[in-house]
Amino acid sequence: MTLWTAKDAAQATGGQATTDWQANGVSIDTRTIQMGDLFVALKDIRDGHDFVAQALEKGAAAALVTHRPDGVAENAPLLIVPDVLKALEALGSAARARTDAKVMGITGSVGKTSTKEMLREVLKPQGKTHAAEASYNNHWGVPLTLARMPQDTEFAIIEIGMSNPGEIAPLSNLAQPHVVMITTVAAAHLEAFESIEGIAHEKAAIMDGLLAGGTAILNADIETTAILQTKAKDIGVTPILFGTKNADWQITDVRLSTDRTIISATHGDADYLFKLSVAGRHFASNAVGVLASVEALGADPTQAALDIAHWLPPAGRGTREVVTLDPARTDETLDLIDDAFNANPTSMTAALEILAAATPVDNVGRIIKGRRIAILGDMLELGGEEMAMHRDLSQDTNLQTADLIHCAGPRMKHLYDALPEEKRGLWAEQAQELASQPAALVDAGDVVLVKGSKGSKVSLVVDAIRKLGHR
């Protein structure tokens, strides 16, 4: 199916097409480019113009560039524009304008990508659904997601993130959503803001792009919910609240077990009882927000409540797996919870509750007793109070149920020093040091949570544990 013709793309961007071409996709990465894609030569760490020849050799339909790069034939299919990023934004805007899709915008300090994937899972049985395959939520990710949107899309889910003030509103204005959802407001990217209230105001800016008559799905349980609700009312949007406190979508019960969450909720005269195929109170809250969003988009929340059981977290965001430690002894396994993509105090608390709800297995490992083990990497971008935030995790009641806690990074050293001596495992300056000795960290029968900010590189420990069974 043709996504962009040379004529349409040139009209959208104001650029000049060197030949007549047709593209059925849009790519910014030659490592994943598909035959027939339009390659967008963005400048980031590297200049995408350096890869245009390679993209065309791999079968790109054309390249979006500011000039013909060296080594590219004079008759190569190009779309020449003054600024590649602005042209990508223009493509995204044109794609948004030509579709009748109901558009959903999602932001929040925690849970954006997981909630986006929940929505994808429950909306796709009800209509043609479009969403980014990864966490594309920044200044190039949002226009790229829009530019990839087929014209016959019925539901589009756009994830919108930020690192600094003033980033969300322009992206929301580009997406022009009918419905927005704010999952939560927490101490993430606090270095760039004076307070958590500042983060709340920035998250609330997603409502600036709402179309007339749009809907804002807001978390009733967070301390800054009043800021979000005031913003909605100030711009003439009636907020729909989800949560446990005086909400339109009221959570009445959440029960966690090792591998599932059972949720009870009410909305109007309707009662909902449904399950997630993963443990997590934060997942439960967002799942109810998803049902509210589905209804606001004009789809069926009852059907969505059934289909949401098929959803599982994306890799690194609470994914759960069984790791066999010895291929010759299939009973020697451990339960690995991979939550190594992101971390702040709120998401750390949620992950530790999942660990506390898990049940280790005795009599299968060298230590005999199965253990709850936390392997924690630094939480980054928390601002001036970051050391205290790490130390204060020692008071978390769910962390106190852990049998052993390994820590990586200079910030997590403050937690390590605050732990009771019997709970201290290993501490290392860098996660690579822990990853070099995975057998010393875990044993068969254990339930192991690995959690930290992406920049802490604690995902290396996840990889090392996975490889234990391949010795």
Widest beta sheet: strand line-up: 9-10-8-11-12-13-14-15-16
In CATH, what is the homologous superfamily of the largest domain? Mur-like, catalytic domain
As a percent range, the share of helical residues equals 25-40%
CATH class category of the largest domain: Alpha Beta
How far the N terminus sits from the C terminus, by CA atoms, comes to 46 Å
Give the overall silhouette. Answer: globular
Poorly predicted regions = none
How much is the radius of gyration in Å?
24 Å
What would you call the structural class? alpha/beta
Number of helices: 15
Sketch the major β-sheet: 9 strands, mixed
Average pLDDT figure:
95
CATH architecture of the largest domain: 3-Layer(aba) Sandwich
Strand percentage, roughly? 15-25%
Please indicate the count of domains: 3
Question: How many runs of DSSP E, i.e. beta strands?
Answer: 22
Q: Predict the CATH topology of the largest domain.
A: UDP-N-acetylmuramoyl-L-alanine:D-glutamate ligase
